[in-house]
């Protein structure tokens, strides 16, 4: 292969890798939401690195997978949990770390047969990621609360 | 072209194809929402395969494009319809079938000059897709209702 | 490089470029929302072309970056501003113009320590873009209001 051709192909592979890293982080973030929404607390915690940190305003930081799984499991009281994530924007540069900003709208419902009795709140998310031998993982989550609709009947988010 | 180079290029083409399949499904899903939100019931039904199935909790399954168009057309009574879709995650493997999970937040408004008189509800979506000669189509939709805000004045979703 | 190989590589580069243009527009749209949500009125206006037009139903068109920055700055009264954007679908063809449709859900909160005192509204977005020497910019935004939840205590959106 001549040098020009090798360079052209290497350049295309780097461009593909950036798009694939963003796609892999997109998959990670959807798994992140789906696992907790399905009450899979350990699988949720495993989307973090082993030394991962989850910061939710009013809760204080949770450090490591065991603490994170335990904190998330307070949502056990809700039959319906929806972490709806928007404006998910990744900063990726080909290295083994990345960051993201996003917005969360969370809907929690004690009894999905009574969908009108729900609590909705949300705010800005910030994420840090690390590429590990098992793939991308969340190294840090920070979440603020900017709005709320309905009543926090379980008193978990106030 | 030598064998190594041919292999390198074939590999890149497969990686590109995966990203393009996800992009095509993204386009399909946005068309899916836009057509129904614009009251284009037949165009909406045509985003399904001919034997497509639409399952909405409380409605029972609708089978085939004619039934799907008819079921969707009940939303005629709303001037404003917004199927807001988030956490759209595709499972794609290079074959002619694919699946997705997502969340729906639906806002329906009888008279958009009175935007405060709306009904909002949503829940988890599951999709199955098939690649057809006309491109990707929805083979099956399943939707649950987890939350609701406001009053279902038209009694369509209860 | 033989002609077949050159053709194969050129084709792949075009396909990559389409995906990268969509990714760049995705980045632009997230910056568009983040800048205004962070009260960076000038940086927000700079996501437009110099002759950009921002149309918000009830507001009338704002033309050029100075008018756009001034109009956006009315949101100064809200500590919490979240432009949550969904169904973001780009029409891109390899040229220097592009369009998009999307939905907005906007949450504004005068005092984030009282997140329950917020106003939420939204509707369909349409965008036109132009590729400039600085990258993609918004040439035109059009936004309609289809739904509202809560009370517009500041009277800015009615």
UniProtKB/TrEMBL annotation, chains A, B, C:
Residues 18-140 form the SnoaL-like domain. Pfam families: SnoaL_4. It comes from the Eukaryota. This is SnoaL-like domain-containing protein. The lineage of its organism: Eukaryota, Fungi, Dikarya, Ascomycota, Pezizomycotina.
């Amino acid at each position: 292969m001549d040098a020009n051709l090798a360079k052209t192909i290497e350049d295309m592979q780097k461009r593909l890798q950036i798009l694939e890293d963003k796609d892999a982080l997109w998959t990670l973030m959807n798994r992140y939401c789906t696992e907790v929404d399905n009450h899979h607390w350990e699988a949720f915690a495993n989307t973090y690195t082993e030394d991962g940190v989850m910061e939710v305003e009013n809760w204080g930081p949770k450090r490591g997978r065991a603490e994170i799984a335990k904190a998330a499991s307070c949502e056990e009281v809700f039959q319906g949990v929806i972490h709806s994530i928007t404006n998910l924007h990744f900063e990726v540069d080909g290295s083994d770390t990345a960051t993201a900003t996003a917005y969360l709208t969370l809907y929690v419902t004690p009894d999905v047969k009574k969908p009108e009795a729900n609590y909705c709140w949300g705010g800005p998310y910030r994420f840090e990621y690390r590429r590990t031998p098992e793939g991308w993982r969340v190294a840090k989550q920070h979440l603020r609360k900017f709005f709320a609709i309905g009543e926090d009947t379980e008193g978990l988010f106030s």
